[in-house]
């Protein structure tokens, strides 16, 4: 069948989705028939979930980005954009993102890009800092991570949860914590220092800002977030130096760098590279002076079970999953913290 051209992206309400439901539900089920979202996933789940959302009270703020051709045929959609942002809510948990699986690849790419840009624009305008969604197919993971910088941020019950920061580097300058860190050079090495007291678990750096998937493999300025998934951020972690007993850590649920304990003004900001990097591209000798100092830092792959147990709570979900294979004894003691 020849498709009518061109396509357009519309921001529609629940009534539009309900009136086109037969068409949309068939496309949704077809688009996710090969999903690897989770064990026991059913291709009917996206349609069932979306239909249920269409019948919840939404206060007039629930919108959906829908791609249609000039004849009105639905070509793709991203559901559940809460454009009336609740006070104090900074992350929008959106619904399913799909394109018609029968479309030629170039057209799917164009439509996906246009929908993604429209969604990002609308939710940034609403005041959100980030978007969270579950990505159910390998094709979706490849495209959204490479095109927009979506990064894995899994939870125990949502292993395919991904996050995208919406703030730009320029906008980050007005962050409440922007005055609490500064670049300095110490012994010829660039580092970051606290310029004010920082409380335990306080967010110091939003790593989602300017986050993009790196096209290369591991490098000295990348952050590993999954198997073969490396990212660069305009805010870090480059020049946040390693320490075997650091004062900061990465919260992988929202991709922020936080204080592991109270930090005093003038303290260097650090984190343990082995909590994110499976195998370092550039191993080095550590001179941190901590009683727990590894001496040689080469990545999680080279840690013994005692060290893995010591830092387990700080590990990325990706590295915690490695514990299932490499540390069976530790797995039994920490199974509640492991992603399902």
* Unreliably modeled segments: 169-179, 331-340
Please tell me what the overall shape is. Answer: elongated
CATH fold name of the largest domain = Aminopeptidase
**CATH homologous superfamily designation of the largest domain:** Gcn5-related N-acetyltransferase (GNAT)
Secondary structure: helix percent: 25-40%
| Straight-line N-to-C gap | 42 Å
Structural class: alpha+beta
- CATH architectural category of the largest domain: 3-Layer(aba) Sandwich
Question: Could you name the CATH class of the largest domain?
Answer: Alpha Beta
Largest sheet: 4 strands, antiparallel
Report the total helices: 9
The tally of structural domains comes to 2
H/E element order: EHHHEEEEHEHEEHEEEEEEEEEEEEHHH
Report on this model:
This protein folds into two domains: 7-167, Gcn5-related N-acetyltransferase (GNAT) (Aminopeptidase, 3-Layer(aba) Sandwich); 189-331, SET domain (Beta-clip-like). Helices cover 26% and strands 24% of the residues. The chain is built from nine helices and 20 strands. A hairpin with a 4-residue loop joins β2 and β3. α2 (21-31) packs antiparallel against α3 (45-53). Residues 169-179 and 331-340 have low confidence and may be disordered.
């Amino acid at each position: 069948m020849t498709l009518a051209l061109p396509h357009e992206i519309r921001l529609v309400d629940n009534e539009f989705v309900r009136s086109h439901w037969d068409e949309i539900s068939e496309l949704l089920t077809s688009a996710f028939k090969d999903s690897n979202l989770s064990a026991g996933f059913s291709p009917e789940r996206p349609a069932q979930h979306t239909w249920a959302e269409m019948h919840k009270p939404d206060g007039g703020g629930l919108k959906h980005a829908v791609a249609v051709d000039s004849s009105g045929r639905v070509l793709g959609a991203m559901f559940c954009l809460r454009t009336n942002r609740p006070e104090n809510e900074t992350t929008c948990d959106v619904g399913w993102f799909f394109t018609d699986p029968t479309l030629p690849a170039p057209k799917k790419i164009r439509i996906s890009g246009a929908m993604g840009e429209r969604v990002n624009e609308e939710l940034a305008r609403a005041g959100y800092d980030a978007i969270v969604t579950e990505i159910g197919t390998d094709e979706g993971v490849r495209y959204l991570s490479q095109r927009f910088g979506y990064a894995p941020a899994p939870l125990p019950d949502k292993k395919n949860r991904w996050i995208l920061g919406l703030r730009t580097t320029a906008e980050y300058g007005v962050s409440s914590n922007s005055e609490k860190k500064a670049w300095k050079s110490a012994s010829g090495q660039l580092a970051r220092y606290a310029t004010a007291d920082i409380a335990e678990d306080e967010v110091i750096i939003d790593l989602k800002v300017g986050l993009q998937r790196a096209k290369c493999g591991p490098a000295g300025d990348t952050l590993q977030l999954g198997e073969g998934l490396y990212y660069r951020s305009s805010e870090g972690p480059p020049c946040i130096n390693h320490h075997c007993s650091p004062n900061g850590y990465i919260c992988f649920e929202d991709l922020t760098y936080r204080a592991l304990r109270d930090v005093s003004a003038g303290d260097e900001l650090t984190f343990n590279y082995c909590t994110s990097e499976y195998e370092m591209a550039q191993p080095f000798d550590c001179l941190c002076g901590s009683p727990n100092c590894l001496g040689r830092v080469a990545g999680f792959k080279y840690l013994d079970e005692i060290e893995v147990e010591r830092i387990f709570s700080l590990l990325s979900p990706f590295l915690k999953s490695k514990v299932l294979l490499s540390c069976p004894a530790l797995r039994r003691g920490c199974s509640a913290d492991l992603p399902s």
